[in-house]
Amino acid sequence: MSAIYIHIPFCLSKCAYCGFYSIPSQKKKSAFLEALKREIVSRKDYLRGETVSTVYFGGGTPSLLSVEEIDALLDLIRAQFNVEPDPEITLEANPDTLSLDYLKGLGYIGVNRLSIGIQSFFDNDLQYLSRRHDSRHALECVGWAKEAGFENISLDLIYGLPTSDADQWSRNLDLFFGMDVPHLSAYALTLEPNSILTKQIEMGKALPVAEEDVVRDYEILCRKAAENGFLHYEISNFCKPGMHSRHNASYWFGTPYLGLGPSAHSFDGVSRQWNGSSLEEYVEDRSQKSEEKEMLTLEQQYDEYVMLRLRTMWGIDLKYLKREMGERFSEYCERQAQPLIVQGRLSRTREFLYLTDEQMLFADGVAEELFW
Ligand code: SF4
Q: What spacing in Å lies between the alpha carbon of 302 and ligand 1's midpoint?
């Protein structure tokens, strides 16, 4: 089993909080698509014939590609890789790029999961984030997605916004849970280094973000998700039973994945590779030459396993650690976990260590204590 991620680096404009690699211009779109096709062909052996179960178009704004362009990429992937008959094919989309016809077209070519960047159903939040859509459009495009036949839909929301109080965040969630959409990705607003928002806050031109608002909204989020029968399966991800993102789960379960496009990362089970974050180099085929590669030591693999699995409801499997990495690692992990269990920062069942809802916001700190 394996996964393919495709990074589409174009956006219509740059959102103030954005930390992703994206360019607010589509001038190089044709050259990019040609380079992407070359990369698909040149890396056809990376997954060593493993069955591809998921394809994920992320970005950037993948919904800036036409249906025909996405179809051509999928055809090439099917021709070069061993894609299973019923793969999960996800496309990230922004409301301002969607129409009913476009969504119907996506369904027709086999895209079967949509991840829509709603972020908020309230205009004051959307303006703070400098999103291009408004609340009316946010609601409208979810209706279109359903009308176009999509059942597997995920919406992104952002919490901890200084423009939103507890009541507004609750109403955001009530709107979401009233829509009968099976998946929610809810992210705390983070101030990325060098983002426009970070600079605006530093200059006193935008409202600052308060840690206590993040914690307050997170508690509301966990409570409402549970009340609505959603599983909290990863720090930022909630779903109806059985509707988790198969693609993202592959990152947490150590499944090999191939990342295509500028800034995309790949993992073949023992080493990690990544393309440079430069569209110019990518279209000139220079990024593959300067592609970086890191062999993971067993200690690094242990750290990575701990960090990724602690973020999920599946937790750290001590039996797996013993079987796959050896007693040295499972015993070390148990030893390090002991004081954290006593402090109530970590929970344990027979073979698993995991974080409860309340502790998940602090996953990074707990993971550091368990690192090699
Ligand atoms: S749409 Fe997404 S990737 Fe593009 S600028 Fe906004 S946050 Fe960044």
A: 32
